[in-house]
Design a protein that fits this description.
By secondary structure, this protein is of the alpha/beta class. It has one domain: NAD(P)-binding Rossmann-like Domain (Rossmann fold), CATH 3.40.50. It has 10 helices and 7 strands. The protein has helices at about 30-40, 55-60, 75-95, 125-145, 175, 185-210, 225-230, 230-240, 250-260, 285-290, and strands at about 20-25, 45-50, 65-70, 100-105, 165-170, 215-220, 270-275. Strands 3-2-1-4-5-6-7 form a 7-stranded parallel beta sheet, with helices on both faces. Helix 1 runs parallel beside helix 2, helix 1 (about 30-40) crosses helix 9 and helix 8 runs antiparallel to helix 10. The longest helix is centred in the middle third of the chain and has 25 residues, at about 185-210. The two termini are about 35 Å apart.
Length: about 300
């Protein structure tokens, strides 16, 4: 069991007083990640999001972790480039480079005005925005930070100590691993994140000559704003389809993200971590029942 001190700190030394960047850190999994990084010793967390992250910043103040918000819309290339430049200014101001980048921000069919989450057809412009936000935006943000040499790495062409290898953690989805009877466009954008993540370590070493570890977390259905509008009957079926019979919490995902940012996973890269309660094992027959309009059998 994780020991939590009276002030809420879990392990003040695990993340080595590093600087971390979290996209979409103003709510949901991103906000929980900001909180967890602070609990584990982050010196500063830079939050990139479209709307203000004031609440997320206030919640980490008791841990003596500085929070800094930068407006960023990952679906807009100029906004992404500008945000990277603002990150550079902040990093230079505090005199420490980035220890970890968490590409968490993303959108679903709901954000594009979809009528539902099953078999809904959306226009080309919506598909392009989904890929821009979920895959292209994070990829370009990462590229901008790399080109500006903002990661806290060892000197090129040297063998680093484990704490000299920065981390990238990308948030994909169980839907990027397995088709679960939902919109294929979101699934495809998240599958692209997985494939890209596996290439990062080798690509960065080839291009820049230093090491960076990159891993991906695939949450299942997590209790956030994204699941609030799921119809009750479908929510019951989704939980029944999950071997652990419940939705996960943002805090559970955040704990794994922090783990992947730490030296405890210093020899882990290109890995795909499932945080889905077992749902990623494949399509459940319960989903087929829902599609066929069959009432979900109630116990008792």
């Amino acid at each position: 069991m994780v020991e939590v001190e009276s002030n809420g700190i879990i392990n003040p030394n695990r993340l080595g007083g590093g600087v971390f960047v979290v996209t979409g850190g103003n709510k949901g999994i991103g906000r929980a990640t900001v909180h967890r990084l602070a609990q584990e010793g982050a010196l500063e967390v830079i939050i990139l999001s479209r709307s203000s992250a004031d609440e997320a910043i206030v919640q980490i103040d008791p841990f003596n972790t500085k929070g800094f918000w930068i407006a960023c819309d990952l679906s807009d290339e100029s906004s992404t480039a500008h945000a990277a430049e603002q990150v550079k200014k902040e990093v230079e101001a505090i005199g420490k480079r980035i220890k970890g980048l968490v590409n968490n921000a993303g959108i679903t069919e709901k954000d594009l005005g979809s009528r539902g989450i099953l078999y809904d057809f959306i226009g080309r412009e919506h598909i392009e925005k989904m890929f821009q936000t979920n895959y292209i935006g994070p990829r370009m943000l990462t590229a901008h930070l790399l080109r500006r040499d903002l990661f806290d790495h060892a000197e090129p062409d040297t063998e680093p100590f484990v704490d000299q290898v920065p981390s990238i953690v990308n948030i994909s989805s169980v839907r990027g691993k397995n088709w679960v009877m939902m919109g294929a466009d979101y699934d495809a954008s998240k599958a692209a994140v997985i494939t890209w993540t596996k290439s990062i370590t080798a690509s960065v070493f080839q291009e820049y000559g230093y090491f960076i570890k990159a891993n991906v977390v695939c949450p299942g259905f997590i209790t956030t704003e994204m699941t609030d509008d799921i119809p009750p009957r479908l929510a019951a079926i989704l939980k029944y389809s999950t071997p652990l019979r419940r939705f996960g919490t943002p805090e559970e995902v955040a704990a794994e993200v922090a783990n992947l940012c730490s030296v405890d996973t210093g020899f882990t890269t290109g890995d795909v971590r499932s945080m889905d309660g077992g749902l990623g094992g494949g399509v459940s027959p319960s989903m087929l029942l829902y599609e066929a309009g069959v009432d979900f059998p109630k116990k008792g």
